[in-house]
Amino acid sequence: MRHEAQGEGGVEEAVAFIAEQVGALRKLAERHRLDVLHYLLGMTKLEADEHLRLRSKRRLS
Fold first, then answer.
1. Confidence band (pLDDT; 50, 70, 90) for 3?
2. pTM for this entry
3. Over the stretch 4-54, which tens digit does the pLDDT of each residue have?
4. Quick one: pLDDT at residue 2?
5. Nearest to 48 by CA among 25, 27, 18
6. What is the rounded distance in angstroms from the CA atom of residue 29 to the CA atom of residue 43?
7. Can you give the pLDDT at residue 7?
8. Would you tell me how many other CB atoms lie within 10 Å of the CB of residue 36?
9. Cα(19)–Cα(52) distance, rounded to whole angstroms?
10. Residue 22's CB: how many other CB atoms inside 10 A?
């Protein structure tokens, strides 16, 4: 069983925060032409965004 610490928010808040931060890191990697990091961070952002989309879709049904 997973427990969330008091005041840390839920899974959606964590994933949204990760997506936001990864987006900023991806821009930094692009600016410095760190192609592999840019690609990997892009994949991470896609995964986080997809997680949020699927959770939102499940909540609506």
1. low
2. 0.78
3. 555 578 999 999 999 999 999 999 999 999 999 999 999 999 999 999 999
4. 55
5. 18
6. 13
7. 59
8. 8
9. 9
10. 20
Place of tokens 């879709």: 57
- Extract the tokens encoding 31: 């600016």
Task: Tell me the two tokens of residue 34.
Answer: 């760190």
For residue 55, CA distances in Å to 17, 26, 52, 59 come to 15, 24, 5, 6
Q: Token digits for 42?
A: 């892009």
**DSSP class per residue in 4-61:** PPTTS--HHHHHHHHHHHHHHHHHHHHHTT-HHHHHHHHHHHHHHHHHHHHHHHHHH-
Q: How many residues are there in the chain?
A: 61
Q: What is the rounded CA–CA span in Å between residue 37 and residue 51?
A: 21
